[in-house]
Sequence to fold (145 residues):
Amino acid sequence: MLLTEIDHVAIAVKDIEAAIDFYRRMFGAEVAYREVVEIDGVEEALLKVAESYVQLVTPIRHDSPVAKAIEKRGEGLHHIAYRVDDCADALASMVAAGATPIDKAPRPGSRGTLVAFIHPRGCFGTLIELVQEERRLSERAEREG
Fold:
């Protein structure tokens, strides 16, 4: 099994402050992590739910993939992210099985992770993100070092 856990469910929003306030009022959720991810043109706020997150993500540029998604489909579910032990291996395995990668190789993600996205085409219309956590990165470095 390539997937170890659900890392996060990403929700594209126009107003991240209003979305954070909604989750705080409705569920008592607090922001566990917040970051601007320049390469993706987004700001994200992660709300911890057990061992996973709800990721509220808003565009900071009009040309970001999230801005385009909101323009095309409106606010709402953007992608689901799965934790994997080794992002490169999981990506290669999915591509070998016929998945269409958006990222040709893993790249840095937020909170010190490695990530790779898989196109919704061939995944029942769902954008998938593979996430290798920092602790898995250090374990891999120890094995290879």
The first strand starts at residue 3 and ends at 12.
